[in-house]
Design goal:
The protein is α+β, with helices and mostly antiparallel strands. It has 1 helix and 9 strands; from the N terminus they run αβββββββββ.
Amino acid sequence: MRMGSRISVLAAVACSVLAITGVALAGAAKPAPTKVTIVPPNTKTATLHGKVYSTNTVCWTRTIDVHQIQGPAQNPSKDKIVATTTSKAGHGNGFWKLSSDPHPGRYYARATKAPGCKAGSSKLIHFQ
């Protein structure tokens, strides 16, 4: 193989590697969306609990803050955090539960932002 041909082949390989690396880095830079649920106590789980869903499996294990709503709508920067726990990965999602229930009120769960994962909040529930 001639020297000019070798350089052309090496240049083509280098461009391919850079293109693939660029696509991988671009995909890694965009955090995955997160969906969080909150469920009141029931016959299976005796405390507030819920799940964490994401297309990125790393996002299933997250810090979960349970907020008591202070105004008419969810506002994580102003609502009181009444409990914090960590979700555990398993069965195609993350599962979290509190060790004890908070006082009656209106609550939602929020998965905090993490590397590669967007923050996510559940719907509001009324707990009595």
